[in-house]
C-alpha cells in the first residue's frame, strides 16, 4: 500500500484533495495484437505528475485495449511498463495497486445501495472508508438523498456518479478512464471536469479516451492510435 | 519481457517448425504405413490363436496400442499446453491443439475395439470395466478440450483457456483412473481385462510392439500435418508465410 | 495482513449480502435438487428396496447437477457489470479472492443441499446411520464440486452457450468425488466402514482447495485478457 498510504487520507471537501508525491509512468515499445490485427507496435510514452494524456483514434484503433494494457488487465505481446522506475508486474501492490480504472461498466451491484457498493470496493482495494466520508463524497456529487437506495433505482447518470465517487475515494495517483464523458448530462460533465482538474492540480495523472474535446485546464497531450502507430 | 530467446527455442520458431515438419511428415507417414502392414500381418496371420480366447484376442493388437496412445497423447497435449501457456511458445500452442483430435480418435478406437472384444468374452458390448470406464471419461475430457477451444473465437485466448483445462484434466486423470478402478473392484470384483493375456508369446509381443510403433508414427505424422496447417492460418499475415505461399498479396 | 483480511471479509460480506437480496437464485437451486430426487421414484417405481439401493447415486448425481446449474452465475454477473475487472485490479492475491467468492457460493448453494439431504434420504428409505454418512460425505464433497466447477465457470466466461459447455468441461472432473461420495453411503449400507471413502474424500478436498484457486485465477485472467 505504499502509494495510498503515502497520500493523506480523504477529508471532506474532496474535490480539492491533498497533493500526491510526484510519480512517473513510463511505457516503452509496447506491442499488442488483437485477433490477428496489430493494434500498436513500439508504442512509447511517459507521463509525469500532473499530466493528462488523451488517447485518440478512430473506432477499433485499440484505445480501450491500450487502457486495459496500462491497467495490467491485458498482457502486451512485448514492451515494458514501469511506475517510478519499477516494472509494473513487480509492484508490491500488484499491477493495479497504483491506479484506479473506470471502464465502460460502472462495476456497481444493482441490489446494493450506493454506500454499500462504495464501502465494499474501497475495502477490497485496501483503503477502507468511514461511512461519513462516503456520505459526504456522495453529497458532494449531488447524490445526497440517494445513498441508501439500491443502485438499480438510480438513473444512468447517477450510477456514473457513484462510480466517480469510488474513483475519488480510492485516492490513487493514476486514473485510467475509458470514455468518462459518454452518456453524461451536462451537470455531471461539469462535476467530472472539476474532479479531473482537481486531480491534476494535486499532481495526479490521468489517461483517458474520449470522443469529445476534453474541457480540462492544465498540461495535456494527445496520443493518436492509427494503423500500426 | 523481451528476453533473448534461448537457442533451443530457435527450433520452435514458426518458420523453422514449418520447414522442418514439412520434410519430416513423409518419413513418419511412410514408416507408419510400413509398420501398420507388418504389424497387422504379424498379429492377424503369423501369430497363433490363443488357447483360451481363440481368435478374438487379436483385437488386442489394435485395442492396446490405442489405449496407450490415448493416455500418452493426453499427457503430451497437456505438456505442450503448459509450455505454450507459460513461455508463450506459439508452436507449442498449435501442437497442443493438433494433438487433441488424434488423442480423441485413439480413445474412441480403444472404446470401440474394447466393445468388440467384450461381446465374445463377456457376452455384452459394454461392461462397466474399470479400464473401459476410464477410457470413456478420457474421451469426455478430450471432447471438453476441443469444445472449449472451438467455442472461443480469439485464438490466443482459446489456446490459453484450453491449456488451463488440459492441465486441470491431466492432474485429475490419475485420480479419476484410481477412483474408477477402486469403484470397480468394490462393486463387481476384478474381471478379465483385455490386456491380461496370461501367456504372451514372442510373436504376439512383436506384433503388439510393431502396432504400437505404427500408432506413434501415424500420430506424429498427423499431428505435425495438422499443426502445420494451423500455424499457416494463424500466421497468414506474416512475412514468412507470404514468402512460402508464393508471395501472393 | 490486516488489509488483506479486511478485503477478503468485505468480498465475502458483499457476496452474502447479494445472495440474501437475491435469495430466489439459491432457492431455485435447492428446488431443483429436491425435484430431481423426487422424480426418480416416479421413473423407476416405488419399490423401497430398489430406491434404497439407488439412493446414494441418485442423491449425489442430483447434487452434482444442482451445483452445476448454480455455477454459471458464479462469475458471470461480476463479469457483466465490470466488478470482475475491478477485482483483478485490487492489490489482493486473486486466488484468495476467488476462494472467498467460492466460499460465499458454497454457503448459499452447497450447504443448503447438505442440510436438506436427510429429508430426501428418508424419502428414499435410508436409515439413520446411512443419513449421517450421507451428510458427512456431502459436507466434504460439495465444496469440491464448487471449487472444480468454478474452473469451468471461469473458462466459459462470456461465451455463448456457456452453461452447457461448463457441464461438458466439468462433469468428467466430478467423477472422483461422485465415486467416493456415493461409495461412502454404499459402504455403510452393505455393513462395512465408510471411513476409507470419507478420508479419501477429505484428502481430495484438501488437494482441490490447494490447487483449484490458482487454476481459477489463471482462467479469469485469461478470459479478461
TrEMBL record, chain A:
Residues 25-229 form the ABC transporter domain. SUPFAM superfamilies: P-loop containing nucleoside triphosphate hydrolases. InterPro entries: AAA+_ATPase, ABC_transporter-like_ATP-bd, ABC_transporter-like_CS, ABC_transptr_haem_export_CcmA, P-loop_NTPase. GO terms for molecular function: ATP binding; ATP hydrolysis activity; transmembrane transporter activity. Gene3D superfamilies: P-loop containing nucleotide triphosphate hydrolases (3.40.50.300). Keywords: ATP-binding, Cytochrome c-type biogenesis, Membrane, Nucleotide-binding, Translocase, Transport. This is Heme exporter protein A. It comes from Ectothiorhodospira marina.
From TrEMBL, chain B:
InterPro entries: Cyt_c_assembly (IPR002541), Cyt_c_biogenesis_CcmC (IPR003557), Cyt_c_biogenesis_CcsA/CcmC (IPR045062). Pfam families: Cytochrom_C_asm. The chain crosses the membrane at residues 24-46, 66-87, 94-112, 132-152, 164-183, 203-227. It is found in: Cell inner membrane; Membrane. It is a multi-pass membrane protein. Required for the export of heme to the periplasm for the biogenesis of c-type cytochromes. This is Heme exporter protein C. It comes from Ectothiorhodospira marina.
TrEMBL record, chain C:
One of its GO terms (molecular function) is heme transmembrane transporter activity. It is a multi-pass membrane protein. It holds the Pfam family CcmB. GO terms for biological process: cytochrome c biosynthetic process; cytochrome complex assembly. One of its GO terms (cellular component) is plasma membrane. It is found in: Cell inner membrane. Signal peptide: none annotated. The chain crosses the membrane at residues 27-45, 96-120, 132-158, 164-188, 200-224. Its main location: membrane. Keywords: Cell inner membrane, Cell membrane, Cytochrome c-type biogenesis, Membrane, Transmembrane, Transmembrane helix, Transport. The keyword Transit peptide does not apply. Belongs to the CcmB/CycW/HelB family. Required for the export of heme to the periplasm for the biogenesis of c-type cytochromes. This is Heme exporter protein B. It comes from Ectothiorhodospira marina.
Amino acid at each position: 500500500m505504499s502509494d495510498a498510504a503515502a497520500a493523506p487520507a480523504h477529508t471532506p471537501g474532496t474535490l480539492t484533495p491533498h497533493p500526491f508525491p510526484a510519480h512517473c509512468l513510463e511505457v516503452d515499445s509496447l506491442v499488442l495484437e488483437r485477433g490477428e490485427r496489430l493494434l500498436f507496435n513500439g508504442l512509447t510514452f511517459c507521463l509525469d505528475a500532473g499530466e493528462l494524456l488523451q488517447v485518440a483514434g478512430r473506432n477499433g484503433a485499440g484505445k480501450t485495449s491500450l487502457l486495459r494494457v496500462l491497467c495490467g488487465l491485458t498482457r502486451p505481446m512485448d514492451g515494458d511498463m514501469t511506475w517510478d522506475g519499477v516494472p509494473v508486474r513487480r509492484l508490491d501492490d500488484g499491477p493495479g495497486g497504483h491506479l484506479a480504472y473506470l471502464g465502460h461498466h460502472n462495476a456497481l451491484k444493482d441490489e446494493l445501495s450506493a454506500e454499500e457498493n462504495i464501502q465494499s470496493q474501497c475495502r477490497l482495494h485496501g483503503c477502507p472508508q468511514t461511512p461519513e466520508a462516503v456520505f459526504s463524497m456522495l453529497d458532494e456529487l449531488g447524490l445526497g438523498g440517494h445513498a441508501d437506495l439500491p443502485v438499480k433505482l438510480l438513473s444512468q447518470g447517477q450510477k456514473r456518479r457513484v462510480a466517480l465517487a469510488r474513483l475519488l475515494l480510492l485516492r490513487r495517483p493514476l486514473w485510467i478512464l475509458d470514455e468518462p464523458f459518454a452518456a453524461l448530462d451536462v451537470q455531471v460533465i461539469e462535476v467530472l471536469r472539476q474532479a479531473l482538474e482537481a486531480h491534476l492540480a494535486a499532481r495526479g495523472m490521468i489517461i483517458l479516451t474520449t470522443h469529445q474535446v476534453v474541457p480540462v485546464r492544465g498540461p495535456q497531450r494527445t496520443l493518436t492510435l492509427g494503423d500500426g502507430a | 519481457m523481451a528476453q533473448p530467446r534461448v537457442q533451443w527455442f530457435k527450433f520452435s520458431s514458426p518458420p523453422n517448425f514449418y520447414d522442418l515438419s514439412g520434410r519430416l511428415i513423409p518419413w513418419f507417414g511412410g514408416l507408419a504405413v510400413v509398420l501398420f502392414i507388418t504389424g497387422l500381418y504379424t498379429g492377424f496371420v503369423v501369430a497363433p490363436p490363443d488357447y483360451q480366447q481363440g481368435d478374438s484376442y487379436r483385437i488386442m493388437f489394435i485395442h492396446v496400442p490405442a489405449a496407450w496412445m490415448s493416455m500418452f497423447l493426453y499427457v503430451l497435449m497437456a505438456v505442450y499446453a503448459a509450455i505454450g501457456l507459460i513461455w508463450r511458445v506459439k508452436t507449442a500452442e498449435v501442437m497442443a491443439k493438433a494433438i487433441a483430435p488424434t488423442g480423441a480418435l485413439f480413445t474412441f478406437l480403444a472404446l470401440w475395439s474394447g466393445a468388440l472384444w467384450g461381446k465374445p468374452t463377456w457376452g455384452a458390448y459394454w461392461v462397466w470395466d474399470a479400464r473401459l470406464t476410464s477410457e470413456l471419461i478420457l474421451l469426455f475430457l478430450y471432447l471438453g478440450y476441443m469444445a472449449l477451444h472451438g467455442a472461443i473465437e480469439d485464438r490466443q485466448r482459446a489456446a490459453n483457456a484450453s491449456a488451463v483445462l488440459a492441465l486441470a484434466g491431466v492432474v485429475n486423470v490419475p485420480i479419476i483412473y484410481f477412483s474408477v478402478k477402486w469403484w470397480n473392484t468394490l462393486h463387481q470384483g476384478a474381471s478379465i481385462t483385455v490386456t491380461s493375456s496370461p501367456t504372451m508369446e514372442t510373436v504376439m509381443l512383436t506384433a503388439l510392439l510393431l502396432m504400437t510403433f505404427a500408432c506413434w508414427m501415424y500420430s506424429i505424422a498427423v499431428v505435425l500435418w495438422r499443426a502445420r496447417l494451423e500455424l499457416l492460418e494463424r500466421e497468414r499475415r506474416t512475412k514468412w508465410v507470404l514468402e512460402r505461399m508464393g508471395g501472393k498479396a | 495482513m490486516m488489509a488483506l483480511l479486511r478485503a477478503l471479509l468485505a468480498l465475502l460480506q458483499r457476496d452474502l449480502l447479494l445472495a440474501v437480496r437475491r435469495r430466489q437464485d439459491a432457492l431455485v437451486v435447492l428446488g431443483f435438487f429436491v425435484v430431481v430426487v423426487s422424480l426418480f421414484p416416479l421413473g423407476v417405481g416405488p419399490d423401497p428396496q430398489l430406491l434404497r439401493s439407488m439412493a446414494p447415486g441418485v442423491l449425489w448425481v442430483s447434487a452434482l447437477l444442482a451445483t452445476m446449474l448454480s455455477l454459471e452465475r458464479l462469475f458471470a454477473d461480476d463479469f457483466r457489470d465490470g466488478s470482475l475487472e475491478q477485482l483483478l485490479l485490487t492489490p489482493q492475491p486473486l486466488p484468495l479472492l476467488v476462494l472467498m467468492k467460492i466460499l460465499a457460493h458454497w454457503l448459499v448453494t452447497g450447504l443448503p443441499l447438505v442440510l436438506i439431504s436427510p429429508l430426501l434420504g428418508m424419502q428414499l428409505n435410508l436409515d439413520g446411520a446411512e443419513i449421517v454418512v450421507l451428510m458427512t460425505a456431502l459436507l466434504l464433497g460439495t465444496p469440491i464440486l464448487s471449487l472444480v466447477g468454478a474452473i469451468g465457470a471461469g473458462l466459459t466466461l462470456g461465451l455463448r452457450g456457456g452453461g452447457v459447455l461448463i457441464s461438458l468441461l466439468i462433469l468428467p472432473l466430478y467423477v472422483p468425488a461422485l465415486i467416493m461420495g456415493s461409495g461412502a453411503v454404499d459402504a455403510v449400507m452393505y455393513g462395512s466402514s465408510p471411513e476409507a471413502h470419507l478420508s479419501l474424500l477429505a484428502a481430495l478436498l484438501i488437494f482441490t482447495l490447494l490447487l483449484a484457486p490458482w487454476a481459477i485465477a489463471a482462467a479469469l485472467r485469461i478470459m479478461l485478457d
